[in-house]
Amino acid sequence: MRFMAVSRFIRNCVSALFLLAVGSCGGYSASDYGPANYGPGDEVPRGFGVHGIDISKYQGTIDWRQVRRSGVSFAYIKATEGGDHHDETFLINWLAARDAGVARGAYHFYYWCRPASEQIAWFKKHVPVDPTALPPVLDVEWTPFSKTCPKRPPTKDVLREMNIFLTEMERYYGKKPMIYTSVDLHRDVLVGQFKRYPMWVRSVAGYPSTKYTKRHWTLWQFTGTGRVRGVPGEVDRNVFSGSREQFDQWLAGEISHKDVHRI
Fold first, then answer.
1. Active-site residue 141, yes or no?
2. DSSP structure string for the chain
3. Distance, CA of 180 to CA of 203 (rounded, Å)
4. What is the pTM of this model?
5. Most buried residue, 9, 21, 78, 151, by CB count within 10 Å?
6. Can you name the CATH fold of 46-259?
7. Where are the domains positioned within the chain?
8. Is 200 exposed, middle or buried (0-12, 13-18, 19+ CB in 10 A)?
9. pLDDT per position in the chain (263 positions), as tens?
10. Within 13 A of 254's CA, how many CA atoms are on the CB side?
11. Are 84 and 46 a contacting pair, CB within 8 Å?
12. What whole-number distance in Å separates Cα of residue 224 and Cα of residue 89?
Protein backbone atom coordinates (compact mmCIF):
# COMPACT_ATOMS: atom_id res chain seq x y z
CA MET A 1 0.00 0.00 0.00
CA ARG A 2 3.00 2.28 0.19
CA PHE A 3 2.77 5.23 -2.17
CA MET A 4 5.10 5.21 -5.18
CA ALA A 5 5.59 8.33 -7.28
CA VAL A 6 5.42 7.40 -10.97
CA SER A 7 5.43 10.02 -13.74
CA ARG A 8 2.27 10.45 -15.81
CA PHE A 9 4.17 9.67 -19.00
CA ILE A 10 5.56 6.37 -17.77
CA ARG A 11 2.23 5.36 -16.23
CA ASN A 12 0.33 5.93 -19.45
CA CYS A 13 2.86 4.04 -21.56
CA VAL A 14 2.97 1.10 -19.17
CA SER A 15 -0.82 1.01 -18.97
CA ALA A 16 -1.15 0.88 -22.73
CA LEU A 17 1.39 -1.92 -23.03
CA PHE A 18 -0.27 -3.78 -20.15
CA LEU A 19 -3.68 -3.79 -21.77
CA LEU A 20 -2.22 -5.16 -24.97
CA ALA A 21 -0.15 -7.80 -23.22
CA VAL A 22 -2.65 -9.26 -20.78
CA GLY A 23 -5.31 -9.59 -23.42
CA SER A 24 -3.20 -12.35 -24.97
CA CYS A 25 -2.17 -14.20 -21.81
CA GLY A 26 -5.39 -14.99 -19.95
CA GLY A 27 -5.62 -11.73 -17.98
CA TYR A 28 -7.75 -8.72 -18.74
CA SER A 29 -8.86 -7.60 -22.14
CA ALA A 30 -9.93 -4.07 -23.00
CA SER A 31 -13.59 -5.13 -22.64
CA ASP A 32 -13.00 -6.02 -18.97
CA TYR A 33 -12.62 -2.35 -18.11
CA GLY A 34 -15.02 0.51 -17.84
CA PRO A 35 -14.23 4.00 -19.07
CA ALA A 36 -11.23 5.82 -17.62
CA ASN A 37 -13.04 8.13 -15.20
CA TYR A 38 -10.21 10.42 -14.19
CA GLY A 39 -7.49 10.16 -16.79
CA PRO A 40 -5.65 7.82 -19.17
CA GLY A 41 -4.36 4.66 -17.57
CA ASP A 42 -6.99 4.58 -14.82
CA GLU A 43 -9.25 1.90 -16.27
CA VAL A 44 -11.83 0.50 -13.86
CA PRO A 45 -12.95 -3.16 -13.85
CA ARG A 46 -16.53 -3.45 -15.09
CA GLY A 47 -19.45 -4.71 -13.05
CA PHE A 48 -18.44 -3.39 -9.62
CA GLY A 49 -20.74 -0.82 -8.04
CA VAL A 50 -18.85 -0.02 -4.83
CA HIS A 51 -15.50 1.74 -5.18
CA GLY A 52 -12.92 2.79 -2.64
CA ILE A 53 -9.39 4.06 -2.08
CA ASP A 54 -6.63 3.52 0.45
CA ILE A 55 -4.37 6.34 1.51
CA SER A 56 -1.54 7.47 3.76
CA LYS A 57 0.29 10.73 4.41
CA TYR A 58 1.89 10.50 0.98
CA GLN A 59 -1.38 11.51 -0.67
CA GLY A 60 -1.09 14.95 0.93
CA THR A 61 -4.11 17.08 1.82
CA ILE A 62 -7.32 15.35 0.72
CA ASP A 63 -10.61 17.05 -0.05
CA TRP A 64 -12.90 14.33 1.26
CA ARG A 65 -16.11 15.97 0.05
CA GLN A 66 -14.72 15.97 -3.47
CA VAL A 67 -13.70 12.35 -2.99
CA ARG A 68 -17.24 11.45 -1.96
CA ARG A 69 -18.76 13.31 -4.91
CA SER A 70 -16.42 11.44 -7.26
CA GLY A 71 -18.19 8.17 -6.39
CA VAL A 72 -15.86 6.80 -3.71
CA SER A 73 -17.83 4.90 -1.06
CA PHE A 74 -15.08 3.75 1.27
CA ALA A 75 -11.49 4.47 2.25
CA TYR A 76 -8.83 2.69 4.24
CA ILE A 77 -6.42 4.99 6.02
CA LYS A 78 -2.95 4.03 7.20
CA ALA A 79 -2.70 4.34 10.97
CA THR A 80 0.44 2.56 12.10
CA GLU A 81 3.48 0.56 11.05
CA GLY A 82 5.47 -1.77 13.26
CA GLY A 83 5.58 -0.79 16.91
CA ASP A 84 6.80 2.79 16.80
CA HIS A 85 5.65 4.48 13.58
CA HIS A 86 2.30 6.15 13.07
CA ASP A 87 0.92 8.18 10.19
CA GLU A 88 0.66 11.76 11.40
CA THR A 89 -2.26 12.50 9.07
CA PHE A 90 -4.32 9.53 10.25
CA LEU A 91 -6.61 11.28 12.72
CA ILE A 92 -7.19 14.23 10.36
CA ASN A 93 -8.26 11.88 7.55
CA TRP A 94 -10.16 9.59 9.93
CA LEU A 95 -12.41 12.43 11.06
CA ALA A 96 -12.67 14.24 7.72
CA ALA A 97 -13.66 11.10 5.81
CA ARG A 98 -16.40 10.37 8.33
CA ASP A 99 -17.70 13.93 8.15
CA ALA A 100 -17.82 13.73 4.35
CA GLY A 101 -19.88 10.54 4.45
CA VAL A 102 -17.12 8.18 3.31
CA ALA A 103 -17.09 4.86 5.16
CA ARG A 104 -13.56 4.47 6.51
CA GLY A 105 -11.34 2.01 8.28
CA ALA A 106 -7.77 1.88 9.58
CA TYR A 107 -4.91 -0.39 8.59
CA HIS A 108 -1.63 -1.46 10.15
CA PHE A 109 1.45 -2.25 8.06
CA TYR A 110 3.14 -5.27 9.63
CA TYR A 111 6.87 -5.18 10.49
CA TRP A 112 8.49 -8.62 10.50
CA CYS A 113 11.17 -7.69 13.04
CA ARG A 114 8.87 -6.85 15.94
CA PRO A 115 6.52 -9.07 18.00
CA ALA A 116 2.83 -9.02 17.16
CA SER A 117 1.96 -8.17 20.77
CA GLU A 118 3.88 -4.88 20.53
CA GLN A 119 2.41 -4.02 17.16
CA ILE A 120 -1.22 -4.56 18.10
CA ALA A 121 -0.66 -2.49 21.26
CA TRP A 122 0.67 0.31 19.08
CA PHE A 123 -2.32 0.10 16.74
CA LYS A 124 -4.76 0.21 19.66
CA LYS A 125 -3.01 3.30 20.99
CA HIS A 126 -3.68 5.24 17.79
CA VAL A 127 -6.96 3.90 16.40
CA PRO A 128 -10.14 4.65 18.36
CA VAL A 129 -12.92 2.12 18.77
CA ASP A 130 -15.73 3.22 16.47
CA PRO A 131 -18.67 0.89 15.80
CA THR A 132 -19.43 2.75 12.56
CA ALA A 133 -15.99 2.15 11.07
CA LEU A 134 -15.05 -0.52 8.56
CA PRO A 135 -13.30 -3.61 9.96
CA PRO A 136 -9.67 -2.88 10.88
CA VAL A 137 -7.02 -4.30 8.55
CA LEU A 138 -3.74 -6.14 9.03
CA ASP A 139 -1.52 -5.44 6.01
CA VAL A 140 1.02 -8.23 5.45
CA GLU A 141 3.56 -8.04 2.64
CA TRP A 142 7.13 -9.15 2.10
CA THR A 143 9.57 -6.25 2.43
CA PRO A 144 12.79 -7.35 0.68
CA PHE A 145 13.93 -3.78 0.10
CA SER A 146 13.38 -2.53 3.63
CA LYS A 147 16.48 -0.83 5.06
CA THR A 148 15.71 -2.02 8.58
CA CYS A 149 13.85 -5.31 8.17
CA PRO A 150 14.07 -7.31 4.93
CA LYS A 151 13.43 -10.43 7.03
CA ARG A 152 11.20 -13.22 5.68
CA PRO A 153 10.22 -15.39 8.68
CA PRO A 154 9.33 -19.09 8.39
CA THR A 155 5.70 -19.84 7.58
CA LYS A 156 4.93 -21.14 11.07
CA ASP A 157 6.19 -17.90 12.61
CA VAL A 158 4.20 -15.74 10.21
CA LEU A 159 0.99 -17.64 10.92
CA ARG A 160 1.54 -17.57 14.68
CA GLU A 161 2.21 -13.83 14.80
CA MET A 162 -0.67 -13.01 12.48
CA ASN A 163 -3.00 -15.06 14.65
CA ILE A 164 -1.92 -13.15 17.76
CA PHE A 165 -2.49 -9.82 16.05
CA LEU A 166 -5.85 -10.71 14.48
CA THR A 167 -7.25 -12.32 17.62
CA GLU A 168 -6.54 -9.28 19.76
CA MET A 169 -7.68 -6.89 17.04
CA GLU A 170 -11.04 -8.67 16.87
CA ARG A 171 -11.41 -8.77 20.64
CA TYR A 172 -10.63 -5.08 21.10
CA TYR A 173 -12.58 -3.60 18.18
CA GLY A 174 -15.49 -6.03 18.23
CA LYS A 175 -15.28 -6.73 14.51
CA LYS A 176 -13.68 -9.48 12.50
CA PRO A 177 -10.59 -7.82 11.00
CA MET A 178 -9.55 -8.04 7.38
CA ILE A 179 -6.25 -9.24 5.95
CA TYR A 180 -4.62 -7.29 3.13
CA THR A 181 -1.98 -9.18 1.19
CA SER A 182 0.02 -9.35 -2.02
CA VAL A 183 0.26 -12.17 -4.52
CA ASP A 184 3.72 -13.34 -3.43
CA LEU A 185 3.09 -13.49 0.32
CA HIS A 186 -0.25 -15.19 -0.21
CA ARG A 187 1.38 -17.77 -2.47
CA ASP A 188 4.22 -18.40 0.01
CA VAL A 189 2.23 -18.46 3.25
CA LEU A 190 -1.52 -17.89 3.14
CA VAL A 191 -2.97 -20.40 0.69
CA GLY A 192 -5.75 -22.17 2.60
CA GLN A 193 -5.11 -20.13 5.77
CA PHE A 194 -7.30 -17.71 7.77
CA LYS A 195 -10.51 -18.52 5.90
CA ARG A 196 -12.59 -17.09 8.73
CA TYR A 197 -11.32 -13.59 7.95
CA PRO A 198 -12.29 -11.38 5.02
CA MET A 199 -9.47 -10.95 2.52
CA TRP A 200 -8.37 -7.83 0.66
CA VAL A 201 -6.15 -8.75 -2.27
CA ARG A 202 -3.78 -6.74 -4.39
CA SER A 203 -3.84 -7.78 -8.03
CA VAL A 204 -2.84 -5.18 -10.61
CA ALA A 205 -1.91 -7.64 -13.37
CA GLY A 206 -4.95 -9.86 -13.53
CA TYR A 207 -8.35 -10.66 -12.08
CA PRO A 208 -7.94 -11.97 -8.50
CA SER A 209 -9.06 -15.49 -9.43
CA THR A 210 -6.08 -15.76 -11.79
CA LYS A 211 -3.64 -14.80 -9.04
CA TYR A 212 -5.20 -16.17 -5.84
CA THR A 213 -6.73 -19.44 -7.14
CA LYS A 214 -9.72 -20.35 -4.93
CA ARG A 215 -9.34 -17.58 -2.36
CA HIS A 216 -12.62 -15.81 -1.59
CA TRP A 217 -11.96 -12.07 -1.54
CA THR A 218 -13.95 -9.12 -0.25
CA LEU A 219 -11.91 -6.17 -1.54
CA TRP A 220 -9.70 -5.99 -4.63
CA GLN A 221 -6.98 -3.38 -5.05
CA PHE A 222 -6.76 -3.22 -8.82
CA THR A 223 -4.34 -0.31 -9.30
CA GLY A 224 -1.77 1.69 -7.40
CA THR A 225 -1.81 4.56 -9.87
CA GLY A 226 -5.43 5.63 -9.83
CA ARG A 227 -6.80 9.14 -10.04
CA VAL A 228 -9.69 10.41 -7.94
CA ARG A 229 -10.96 13.94 -7.64
CA GLY A 230 -10.03 15.39 -4.28
CA VAL A 231 -6.80 13.39 -3.96
CA PRO A 232 -3.60 15.05 -5.18
CA GLY A 233 -1.62 12.74 -7.44
CA GLU A 234 -2.02 9.00 -7.70
CA VAL A 235 -3.86 6.75 -5.26
CA ASP A 236 -4.64 3.05 -4.75
CA ARG A 237 -8.11 2.17 -6.00
CA ASN A 238 -10.29 -0.73 -4.88
CA VAL A 239 -13.62 -2.40 -5.47
CA PHE A 240 -15.95 -4.35 -3.20
CA SER A 241 -16.79 -7.84 -4.42
CA GLY A 242 -20.53 -7.65 -3.90
CA SER A 243 -23.49 -5.36 -4.47
CA ARG A 244 -24.25 -2.01 -2.86
CA GLU A 245 -26.87 -3.67 -0.68
CA GLN A 246 -24.34 -6.27 0.49
CA PHE A 247 -21.78 -3.55 1.22
CA ASP A 248 -24.25 -1.71 3.43
CA GLN A 249 -25.20 -4.95 5.19
CA TRP A 250 -21.54 -5.89 5.67
CA LEU A 251 -20.71 -2.45 7.04
CA ALA A 252 -23.63 -2.71 9.47
CA GLY A 253 -22.50 -6.17 10.60
CA GLU A 254 -25.68 -7.80 9.30
CA ILE A 255 -23.79 -10.25 7.06
CA SER A 256 -20.29 -11.71 7.10
CA HIS A 257 -17.75 -11.74 4.31
CA LYS A 258 -18.85 -15.29 3.56
CA ASP A 259 -22.28 -13.97 2.58
CA VAL A 260 -20.84 -11.49 0.08
CA HIS A 261 -21.21 -12.80 -3.44
CA ARG A 262 -18.55 -12.03 -5.99
CA ILE A 263 -19.64 -10.21 -9.11
1. yes
2. -------HHHHHHHHHHHHHHHTTTTS--GGGB---SSSTT---BTT---EEEEE-GGG-S--HHHHHHTTEEEEEEEEEETTTEE-TTHHHHHHHHHHTT-EEEEEEE--TTS-HHHHHHHHHHHS---TTSPPPEEEE---TT-SS------HHHHHHHHHHHHHHHHHHHSS--EEEE-HHHIIIIITT--TTS-EEEE-SSS-HHHHSTT---SEEEEEEEE--TTSSS-EEEEEESS-HHHHHHHHTTSS-GGGPPP-
3. 11
4. 0.85
5. 78
6. TIM Barrel (3.20.20)
7. 46-259
8. buried
9. 753 333 333 444 444 343 333 333 333 332 333 333 333 345 788 899 999 999 999 999 999 999 999 999 999 999 999 999 999 999 999 999 999 999 999 999 999 999 999 999 999 999 999 999 999 999 999 999 999 999 999 999 999 999 999 999 999 999 999 999 999 999 999 999 999 999 999 999 889 999 998 899 999 999 999 999 999 999 999 999 999 999 999 999 999 999 998 76
10. 7
11. no
12. 20
- Burial class of residue 15, CB neighbours in 10 A (0-12, 13-18, 19+): middle
Q: Which of 42, 54, 81, 161 is catalytic?
A: 54
Q: Tell me which of 139, 141, 161, 168 is the catalytic residue.
A: 141
Q: Are strands 72-81 and 85-86 parallel, antiparallel or unpaired?
A: antiparallel
